[in-house]
Specification:
The complex is a heterotrimer of chains A (287), B (426) and C (277).
Chain A: H1 2-33, E1 35-36, E2 45-46, H2 50-57, H3 59-90, H4 97-109, H5 112-123, H6 129-136, H7 151-177, H8 180-188, H9 193-204, H10 206-221, H11 225-230, H12 242-252, H13 256-281
Antiparallel strand pairs in A: 1-2
Chain B: H1 2-28, E1 30-36, H2 43-54, E2 58-64, H3 69-81, E3 88-92, H4 97-103, E4 106-107, H5 115-120, H6 123-128, E5 130-131, E6 134-135, E7 138-143, E8 145-150, H7 151-156, H8 168-178, E9 191-195, H9 199-209, H10 227-241, H11 254-259, E10 263-269, H12 273-280, E11 286-289, E12 302-309, H13 313-326, H14 329-338, H15 346-349, H16 352-360, H17 362-370, H18 383-399, H19 405-425
Parallel strand pairs in B: 1-2, 1-3, 9-10
Antiparallel strand pairs in B: 3-12, 4-12, 5-6, 7-12, 8-10, 8-11
Helix pairs in contact in B: 9-10, 9-18, 10-18, 16-17, 18-19
Chain C: H1 2-34, H2 39-42, H3 57-65, H4 68-98, H5 105-114, H6 120-134, H7 140-144, H8 151-162, H9 166-174, H10 179-190, H11 192-208, H12 211-216, H13 241-272
Classes of the chains: A mainly alpha (287), B alpha/beta (426), C mainly alpha (277).
Amino acid sequence: MKRAITPILFLFPAVSLVMIFIVYPIFYSFYLSLHSWDMISPNRIFVGFKNYAKLIRDRMFINALKNTLIFTIYTVPTQIILALGLAILLNQKLKGISIYRAIFFSPVVTSIVAISAVWMWIYHPSLGLINYFFRILGINPVNWLGDPKTALLSVSIMSIWRGLGRTVVIFLAGLQEIPKEMQESAQIEGASNWQIFKYITWKLLSPTTFFILVVSTINAMQVFTQIHVMTQGGPAGATEVIVYNLYYRGFQLFQMGYASAIAYVLFAFIISLTLMQKYMLNRWVFY
Amino acid sequence: MFKISLISLLIGIFLVSSSLSSIGQAQSKIKIVFWTTLPTGGYLSRWIKEFESQYPNIQVEQQFISNSYDEMAEKVLASIAGKATPNVAQVGQRHGIPQYVDSGALLPAGSMLDKNDISDILPGLWSRYTYKGRFWAVPFASSTPGLWYNKNLFRRAGLNPNRAPKNWEELVSFAKRLTSDTNGDGKIDQWGIGFSEDVPWYYRPMVIQNGGVIFDKNTGKPMINSKESIETLQFFQDLVFKYRVMPPLQHNSSARDFVNGLYGMLYRSTSVRVSLKKEVGDRFELGLGFLPGKKRVAVGVGGNALVLFKSTPEKEDASLKLIKFLTDTRRTVEMGLETGYVAVRKSAQKQSEIINLRKNDPIADTIYKQIDYIKDSGINPGDALFWRGILRGIEEVETSPDISPKMILDNLQQEILEFLNNYGRR
Amino acid sequence: MGYKSRLVKKILIHSTLFTLSILIAIPFIWMISTSFKNIEEVLSLPPTWIPKRWVFRNYLDAVRFVPLGRFFLNSVVVSSITVISQLTVCSMSAYAFSILKFKGRDILFFILLSTMAIPGEITLIPTFLLIRNIGWMNTYQGIVAPSLVSVFGIFLLRQFFMGIPKELEEAGRIDGITDFGLLIKIILPLSKPALATLSLFAFLDSWNSYMWPLIVTNRIEMRLVQVGLRYFINDELGNNWGGLMAISTLIIIPTLIVFLLSQRYFIEGIKTSGIRG
């Protein structure tokens, strides 16, 4: 009797807050997605799933979807591999390790508006830092953010730079959970570093890795601010991503219903990606 | 028991006194809320104080929202949706106003001014703020585009540093002479002409210069794929591939390059009059010319304007008084002196301060000479589509000489037509 | 041999970390260096790493024009409430989702998780309408309400709680400990690194929040630190780059302090894991 009520007690604060402040607005936007409405004009028209049907023919949206997936493929695996490597390095007991940790974390604390401006200088085709070094090395300068071929890659690099510290911190926290004794006893038994990593660290870290994979995929699929500041979706639509598209539809063209439909298609993509990740990784996630 | 009664007594006293004080205030002062894109503490706050001392029964609360027009637009949209609008707001003209109008939240502030005021403000500005035959905003901080140039590079190229190109043909011939490979490595490192990141803002008047329009003045119908517009987009492609005087796809970086002497000429807003001089410093001598014309001379207008929200008659009245005050001759003159924005009243230009400014600063003089040529075709619900479509189109034609400007503009025209059809049916 | 190889390993690690940290720090260093330059030098070619002439005006401007004190106070209040609330609420529900067993647990968790898949940009106005209807505009509760709970935080803690050895839980049960006791006396002390991570992120996200506070407040006295940047951005009249970089540098100091404080718990985590044996 007492047992049945315990989960309710433990879940009540979170669930009630989520229902009011998160689920309610989400349902509201679903309601919006079935209408042709800008949220301010007196007449709203119920259109059913027409907004969704229109999306299939919307070239701007298809392009945004493609770019979002490419951005996710560029950033998520790179970030996870880099962060895991860094976290293992930063988990050592070394002099000055906390300074290194602070440096790797520093990009995370910067305000995105200011740091995007800094990156725009770094990427500047004639005066920027990267091309400055390229010229010294005799490499042809690249129009990083200006060229449709490199713009999305450039935004991805900046995003990896900014998000890396977060992932490192989560991995670090995950590494703390692994009992030192297990690694030590394996070492005594003559296991190589790679074996220790493969059979102990990687396995015991799998709940953390799963978490990071899911969360960073969601974040990548929802990338917006740095695009808004640095490229506004350009050049020639090369960095147009879904949330930017949604923002443009909703807030500049006042197509709130349509924008909400975009959000729900994104939702479907993210959920199926998450389920796929869960299915594929179920084998090595040890709880 | 005693505690509870004491608390309720205290609450009672508090409620009564607060309601009394609010009644007292309501009788003596009309409070209006003013959302601004200018932070508090500057010239705008000073003017509000002056306004309050002139109208002691009106109290203005300036609320700095954001100097990003996009963010202000989000805020206004949310406020209309939540029925929590301010009384007056400073908004950008790029997109949004037509939708606010159609939501029924606005009053046509421009049309509500006195006849004298309306005719004193340059007609070109009204041409921008017109929607469905009325003036929905009063121009506040207005800016115009201009052709900035580097006089040192002009001299080096054997051009007269005091004469900017008058038309597109001259623009091309000047640009050809300014384009060069200064260090002899086989690559061009000094370009004739560049456009700043807000390219559609220059595209708009260029179409008008070429004899076209963006939206039909009377019907609001888009004319994006007109012959005049296609020629304009073609011109961008030609600057890159035919004349080879503009580097492709560098609109986001051109402003900084210009400061460092890598461009001979640059299309950029004249509102940077003060800051650009500081940025350039003693690197070179700065010149400003009109936007080069074609069939006619035309220039666009940017910046922000004041809109008036519906509320109670007495607040609406007070708000209109505030708008009138902030855009009167005196304030317009001060705006022209303290910032890079331009004083857009005929009466303001007759004031000695503006006359002196023009005498002492040839750049300011050019700006004031050019404002008589402001021409536009009114705000339109499809403005955001135009902006984005043209930006994208220009970027596309700069990527390859094989992309057809006509095809791009035909598609854009179709897209805007569809959008406006749906918009009208709503 | 052992000593030598350890030394080589140490040198290798140090040099790798050093090179990487230089690469990572470049934009950061650039930001700080720009905050001490005048406008002419900011845009100069070639770029200068160390200002030719040190200018402190940018910082003076930041302090003079921006009501920074008020912004800091608001941000500290909002961030503290967010951190405390998320720690409490998330750890309780993460406990339910990991240690407790009940019907529909995993489905409920997945539904909760799926709310993360809707981007905040689209719920911005619906959330605003909600807060306005409650009557919380221009208040601290209006600013913090949507971030009192974080699905990210629940997920994070759940993953960590799941990694805690079952034996510890069972040992507690035999002693007749209640679920609350188990959470507070056993689970939470073992999860300090995860709790530190959550606190850090909760703090950071509310410190960096911009659009939501802007939508839900009108009065400048209720705004948070990120608004400060807006005083130096003006596309039309030209940005004040030096001022922008100065204020950005100023407002990241508290987050760096919070980071350094939370570091302690990472090291403590190593010690506590010793009990597990």
